[in-house]
Design brief:
alpha/beta; Rossmann fold; 7 helices
């Protein structure tokens, strides 16, 4: 197999752990230079070192809280200063917060959830998408959740943010097409570090709701991410791929 992303520059938010880390490694293996953005620069630095040593590509670690507009702009500036281009942007950074009841969700909690899952993706996509369009090509991949279409009481603000992210994908596809493609991966339950906080038996219970009788592993994101990042998806834009094991 060749290197379908050779010479490309891929930016991944929330890139130091979980699904983001897996995509960074996959893109690097496919020949891309990578930008690893997350709030904790130490984790980004560590992964960047691994990527350089293992795959021989360039890797730029950047501390960035995507919920802060200025951080998004600083990330864009750092990337273009280093590489002068972006070919693939993955809006992967996401988070939810536990709350006892909806009426006890504070404004700060709500703003943090919306900021991380939607606001940052909007700003990065708007600025980088415009530059991609001017350069004549690019791919934006938004990482959503089945909560966008199957919202549960424990994650209503998160579900609203992810539904907004999916709407954003369609709007961006028409705004920056035909040069830029914008697609969504709608994830089901995945066994990442977040799953460590789940109560006993939850993984098995969630797995029983899927046709494949299991939840996803981090490696399960790779095929879909490489598809949308590469020319293999040249005729796909505004599309949403359900990556949920056949959730029912």
């Amino acid at each position: 197999m060749g290197k379908p992303l050779s010479g490309k520059v891929c930016v991944v938010t929330g890139g130091s752990r979980g699904l983001g880390r897996e995509m960074v490694l996959a893109f690097a293996e496919a020949g891309a230079d990578v930008v690893i953005a997350s709030r904790k620069v130490e984790a980004c630095d560590a992964l960047a070192t691994t990527v350089r040593e293992k795959y021989g590509v360039r890797a730029l670690p950047v501390a960035c809280n995507v919920g802060v507009w200025e951080h998004c702009d600083a990330l864009v500036d750092a990337v273009y200063a280093e590489f002068e281009r972006v070919d693939v942007l993955v809006n992967n950074a996401g988070m939810s917060l536990l709350y006892p009841s909806l009426d006890q969700v504070t404004e700060a909690m709500f703003d943090k959830i919306i900021g991380t899952n939607l606001k940052g993706a909007f700003r990065l996509s708007a600025v980088i998408g415009a530059r991609m369009a001017a350069a004549g090509a690019g791919s934006i991949i938004n990482i959503s959740s089945m909560e966008a279409t199957h919202p549960e009481p424990m994650a209503v603000p998160y579900a609203a943010a992810k539904a907004g992210l999916e709407a954003l994908s369609g709007g961006l596809a028409h705004t920056y097409g035909p040069a830029v493609r914008v697609n969504t991966i709608r994830c089901g339950p995945f066994d990442t570090d977040i799953a460590k906080a789940w109560p006993p038996g939850m993984k098995e219970a969630l797995g029983e709701h899927t046709a494949l009788r299991r939840i996803g592993t981090s490696a399960d994101i790779v095929g879909a991410a490489l598809f949308f990042a590469s020319d293999a998806s040249a005729f796909a834009t505004g599309a949403t791929l359900a990556l949920d094991g056949g959730w029912r």
